[in-house]
Every structure is written in C-alpha cells, then in structure tokens.
Amino acid sequence: MLINVSALMQENIGARRAYGFTGETVNDAAINCDAELMRTDAGILVSASCVSERDETCSLCLKRYRETQEFSFAEEYFPVIDITTGKRLPPRDSSEDLSISQQHLLDVGDAVRQYLILHELQNPVCAPNCAGLCPQCGADRNTVSCTCPSEPARSEWAALREIWASRSQT
After folding, report:
1. What are phi and psi of 46, to 5 degrees?
2. Are strands 64-79 and 44-57 parallel, antiparallel or unpaired?
3. What are the phi and psi torsion angles at 163 (to 5°)?
4. Which residues contact 20 (CB under 8 A, 6 or more apart)?
5. What is the DSSP string of the chain?
6. What does each C-alpha distance from 132 to 1, 62, 68, 124, 151 come to in angstroms?
7. What pTM was estimated for this model as a whole?
8. Among residues 63, 74, 66, which one has the least CA distance to residue 28?
9. Alpha-carbon distance 117 to 156, whole Å?
10. Is the distance from CB of 50 to CB of 112 less than 8 angstroms?
11. pLDDT tens per residue across all 170 residues of the chain
12. Using H for helix, E for strand and C for coil, what is the string for 76-101?
C-alpha cells in the first residue's frame, strides 16, 4: 500500500489526491480502502475508509465464519527528508508519528495494520442468535437439541439475588 508522494509534497497546502486499494492483505485480512491524501503544512494527511474481511472463529460455537468490518481513520504522515533540498529533517517530538520515507514513499499499510488491531473482535460471534456449545456435553446447540439438564445457579450468588429481589419489591 505504498504511494509515491514526491509530486504532492511539492504542491501547495491543500492539494489533494485520491487512491484506492483493492484486494490487499494485511494481518490475514483482505482489505479494500479508499484514501484521500491532502498536503498539509508539515506533511500529508491521509483520510481513509476501509472494509476488511477475515476468517474468524465464533467464540460460542467454535465454527469458522467470514467477518466483515468497516473502519475509517485520518493520520498525518511526516517526511524525514526535505523535498526541495534533500536534507534530512530534524526528528519530530513523537516517536509514534507515521513517516514518509527518504524515497518519498508513504505506506498506508502501517496505519491500516494499526487500525485493524484496534478493531479486532474480542469475542467474535457468527450470528446474533448463535446458541453456542452445551457446557456439559459439548454439543452444538445450533444444530442439535441438547438433552442435558440445565445447570443450577451457583449458590454463592444466592445472597445477592435475595438482596436484589427484596430491593426491587420496595
């Protein structure tokens, strides 16, 4: 997801370019992004809208399924070399900055990778009505009617249930 921005870096502040990336793979996810690059006083602002598709495992029934997510971001990239003089620029205050390489290449993939990690699902679920696995016999309750008796509520919560019930009655 590299873009040569040498021409854009030489233009006036506010100059824009649009780019599209389709079928890219980042962190085992298929990515499609539409990005707009805008020249700023210090670098280039990248505003992107992306769609990712990746294989996930349902946290309830353990089946594999395809998850689609949409996300967008705006990040500013800063050059390490002055475009007109070719001299190295002094380092910026923040080590978290995204940079434009010495060859004037901007890698949108770095930001996409970071935002993919931020949008990873903690407990992916294949469907809103997924019944999951039976905790006793392990049967997939989406395909089989399990005959296991329901597990009684744990007794250490009984005192809290009684307090809750007594307060809701008043």
Report:
1. -105, 120
2. antiparallel
3. -60, -45
4. 32, 33, 34, 35
5. -EEE-HHHHTSPTT-EEEEEEEEEEETTEEEEEEEEEEE-SSSEEEEEEEEEEEEEE-TTT--EEEEEEEEEEEEEEEESB-TTT-PBPPPPS-TT-EEE-TT-EEEHHHHHHHHHHHT--SS--SSTT---B-TTT--BTTTS---PPPPPPPGGGHHHHHHHHHHHH-
6. 38, 8, 21, 12, 15
7. 0.70
8. 66
9. 38
10. yes
11. 888 888 888 889 999 999 998 888 888 889 999 999 999 988 899 999 999 999 999 999 999 999 999 999 999 998 888 777 777 777 766 656 688 888 888 988 888 988 998 988 899 999 999 989 888 888 888 898 888 877 665 677 777 878 888 887 76
12. EEEECECCCCCCECCCCCCCCCEEEC
CB-count exposure of residue 164 (10 Å: 0-12, 13-18, 19+): exposed
Over the range 32-66, which residues count as b (16 or more CB within 10 Å of their CB) and which as e?
ebebebbbeeebbebebebebebebebebbeeeee
Query: Position of tokens 């307090």?
Result: 163
129's tokens:
């009505």
d(CA 157, CA 161): 6
